[in-house]
Structure formats: structure tokens, C-alpha cells
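Sequence, please.
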């Protein structure tokens, strides 16, 4: 393509014809993520197809002092993939190939633009399983998952994305290509730079390829949804079941969440009665003994007054419908322009922590609707404040942010994280010090300067230099 701006014209020469975009629709589409706070304003969008093109883009950016923002599925919730200040967006949509499946090591090599669900389907075709899962699996990309160390609904059993990365190929902010870890299980040869790039939100360089580990397929996943009278009872249920059964998921959500999901989607209530909270448990019912144990535990929880009602899936279709009660929440809340907080503490501290946060939020936002849900089995809570229709978006965000200090001071008091799984980006950057000590943040800055001395890689994300 031709462009009167010589910098843009030079970028266009580095990618295939038609793969540099400057039209308004493309800039808006590729310059944002799921956050609503920042308006996208990139200079241009490039869509490389090869490692060599990515490396050439980084080298060119260093030469011309261009800031680069990596873009995957743009499903992030911290503005880490937002280009709001004239950056060049590097979108990985065309680098979406899966190759080199290794049945012995149970690994597969993926380009950064592979969609999460694409890898899940590929694993199923090999009679294996990729367990990192979340509501945006149909559009999120592996490069973004790795860059934010994505978690999701199976962490209690399978851990975070970090636990499934055997190796990485990256282009650093200096333009060097590094192969990290060579897909080894054991490699005691000094610093593991692979783990630096996981969760770095593109601030050290660009992930172009990853070798992902796969697991055996779970056997007869069964879902149990329980109605719970009070939050403390949820923790009693978790302890009771975890002591006897290996859970693959343990989620919670509020009655308000159920009302919204069932009203806006073709999803039935789990049972007739309404309860303040709900727990969703998933486990492998690989034999009748496990199923009998689950039913015995359910009866015990009812007898103890921890559970008021419940339903267990009898088929894959019913299990999927029960999961929809939980996984449909984010999609349902999106039209309400929710203000989201994604926080975590140790599981044992969750009840006291949630009570304090709930009191703060209800005192400060008496006129706002609050929706709680989260991955309670790993201590991760999602606080969603819904914008009233009549309230201006900017005023709404300002009012919500005014109470962040109280919320994050409580997070700090409990030794928690201001971002459990959504990353820092720009939205959590002002609050990083509530989770990371000043010395840690200074070390982070030093690490970035080594890999990205010209500060071209996603500048202004996580921290400012």
C-alpha cells in the first residue's frame, strides 16, 4: 500500500500486501480490548505472518522509536492490549497454525494467534485435553493467554496457563529471537526466561510461538449446582468435597447473577427455590463409587444446613446448561458497562475478606447494583458494579474508582492481589503497589530495560518507567 507518512509506508514493506491497516474501522477494532475506559487511537495495525516479519517490525520500531502494542483476541479486561496513544498494533490473527504434535511428550507447537478453543478442539482430536478454560475461549488467543498468565474455571485442578507452557519462542524488545526452555520437563541451567515472558503483558517482547502441554481427557465430567444460604457455608461445602473428591472446578455466584443470566439467555434456573448464593462443583464421576460419594456429601451438607437445594447433571447437555449459569455471567453483564474488580486472597481468608469488601462497596454504592461471582476454589473473586442507565459512563467510572483505595487497602491487609487473572495493563497500574513492594516494582523496571532498552514494547502498561 502507499501512504504519505513515510514511517507507515516503511512498515507496510515489512508485511504482506494489504496487511498494514490504517482505516478508522480497523484502528478502532484492533486498538481496543474489552475494557471501556480508554478510547483506541493507534497509528496503524500490522498483521505479520512469520517470525521474520515480527522480528523486522520490532527492529524497525527500535530504529524509528515506534511503540508497539501486541494484539490477540482482544478479550482482556485491564487495557493491556489497548493502543490509546498512537502506537502500532501488532495483531497475530494470521499466525494461527498448530504443528508438531508429540504424542509421547503430549505437547503441541502453536503460533501466538491460535485461538484457545482451537487448541482445545485439536487436543480432543488426539484424545487429549487442554484444560485452561474460560468464557472467552472462543476468541482469546494463546499469545494473549500466555502474556497475561490466564486462569479461568479449572485452576483448582489444573493451575494457570503458566503450568502448561513447555517452551516459548519470543522476539525481545531489542529484536533478538530467543528459544526458551526447549520444551524440557527438567532444565536446571539458570534463569528461566520463559517464566519472565509469561504474565509480562507484552512489555518485554512479543511471543510468536509456544509449545503447550496436554493432559489426559477427563472421564465423565459431572456438574453439581448447590443453593447456599450464606457465604460462609460455601467454604464449608468446599472443604467437605475437597477432602473426599478431586474437584476440577469450584465456582460461586450470587442470586442476582442467576436472575440476570436467566432473564437474558435461554437458560433455566437450576431449581425452583432461590438462594442467596450458589456453588457450582465439577468432578470426574469415573465410576459409581465417586458418584455415590458425591451424593453422600450433598446429603451431609443439607443436614448441616450448608445447602438448601441442589441439582446434578445427568448428561453432557445438562452439564453444559448448568455451566452456562456461571459462564454466561460476563456476557450478560457487558451491556451494563460494569466496573470490574478481579481480586484474590488465600482461600482460607476468603469469607472474612469478602465480608469486608461487601460492606465497603454497599456503603459507598448504595444506589448501584452489585454482582459477585468467581473462582472460589482458588480464592479469586470478581466484583461487578453495574452502571445505571441514566448515569454518564465517565461519571460512573469516576465514582467507582473513588472507592478503589479502600478496596485495595483491604486486599493488601489480607495479603492478596489486586489482579488475580486479568493482568495489570493500564486499569490496575495505579494500584500495583498494593500487591507488589516498591523494591519488586523497581526490579521489574530493571528487567524491562534489559529486554526492551528503548521502551517500545507496550509502554505504559503494568508500570511507568
Amino acid at each position: 500500500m502507499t501512504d504519505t507518512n513515510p514511517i507507515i509506508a516503511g512498515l507496510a514493506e515489512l508485511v504482506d500486501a494489504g496487511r498494514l491497516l490504517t482505516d478508522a474501522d480497523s484502528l478502532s477494532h484492533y486498538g481496543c480490548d474489552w475494557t471501556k475506559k480508554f478510547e483506541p487511537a493507534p497509528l496503524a495495525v500490522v498483521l505479520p505472518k512469520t517470525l521474520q516479519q515480527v522480528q523486522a517490525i520490532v527492529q524497525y520500531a527500535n530504529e524509528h522509536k515506534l511503540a508497539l502494542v501486541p494484539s490477540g483476541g482482544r478479550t482482556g479486561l485491564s487495557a493491556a492490549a489497548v493502543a490509546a496513544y498512537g502506537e502500532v498494533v501488532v495483531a497475530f490473527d494470521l499466525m494461527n497454525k498448530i504443528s508438531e504434535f508429540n504424542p509421547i511428550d503430549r505437547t503441541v507447537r502453536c503460533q501466538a494467534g491460535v485461538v484457545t478453543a482451537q487448541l482445545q478442539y485439536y487436543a480432543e482430536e488426539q484424545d487429549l485435553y487442554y484444560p485452561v478454560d474460560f468464557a472467552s475461549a472462543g476468541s482469546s488467543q494463546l499469545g494473549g493467554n500466555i502474556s497475561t498468565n490466564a486462569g479461568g474455571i479449572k485452576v483448582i485442578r489444573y493451575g494457570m496457563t503458566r503450568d502448561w507452557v513447555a517452551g516459548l519462542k519470543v522476539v525481545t524488545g531489542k529484536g533478538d529471537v530467543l528459544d526458551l526452555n526447549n520444551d524440557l520437563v527438567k532444565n536446571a541451567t539458570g534463569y528461566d526466561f520463559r517464566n519472565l515472558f509469561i504474565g509480562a503483558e507484552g512489555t518485554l517482547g512479543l511471543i510468536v510461538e509456544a509449545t503447550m502441554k496436554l493432559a489426559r481427557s477427563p472421564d465423565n465430567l459431572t456438574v453439581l449446582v448447590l443453593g447456599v444460604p450464606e457465604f460462609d457455608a460455601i467454604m464449608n461445602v468446599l472443604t467437605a468435597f475437597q477432602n473426599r473428591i478431586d474437584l476440577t472446578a469450584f465456582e460461586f455466584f450470587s442470586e442476582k447473577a442467576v436472575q440476570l443470566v436467566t432473564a437474558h439467555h435461554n437458560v433455566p434456573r437450576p431449581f425452583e427455590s432461590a438462594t442467596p448464593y450458589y456453588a457450582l462443583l465439577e468432578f470426574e464421576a469415573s465410576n459409581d463409587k465417586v458418584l455415590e460419594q458425591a451424593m453422600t456429601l450433598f446429603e451431609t451438607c443439607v443436614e448441616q444446613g450448608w445447602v438448601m437445594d441442589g441439582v446434578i447433571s445427568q448428561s453432557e447437555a445438562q452439564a453444559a446448561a448448568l455451566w452456562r449459569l456461571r459462564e454466561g455471567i460476563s456476557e450478560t453483564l457487558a451491556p451494563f458497562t460494569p466496573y470490574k474488580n478481579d481480586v484474590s486472597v488465600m482461600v482460607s481468608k476468603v469469607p472474612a475478606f469478602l465480608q469486608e469488601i461487601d460492606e465497603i462497596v454497599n456503603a459507598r454504592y448504595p444506589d448501584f447494583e452489585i454482582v459477585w461471582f468467581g473462582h472460589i476454589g482458588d480464592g479469586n473473586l470478581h466484583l461487578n458494579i453495574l452502571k445505571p442507565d441514566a448515569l454518564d459512563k465517565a461519571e460512573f467510572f469516576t465514582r467507582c474508582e473513588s472507592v478503589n483505595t479502600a478496596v485495595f487497602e483491604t486486599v493488601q491487609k489480607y495479603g492478596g492481589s489486586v489482579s488475580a487473572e486479568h493482568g495489570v495493563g493500564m486499569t490496575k497500574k495505579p494500584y500495583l503497589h498494593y500487591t507488589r513492594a516498591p523494591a519488586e516494582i523497581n526490579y521489574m523496571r530493571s528487567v524491562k530495560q534489559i529486554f526492551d532498552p528503548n521502551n517500545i514494547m507496550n509502554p505504559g502498561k503494568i508500570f511507568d518507567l
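The two ends are 35 Å apart (CA to CA).
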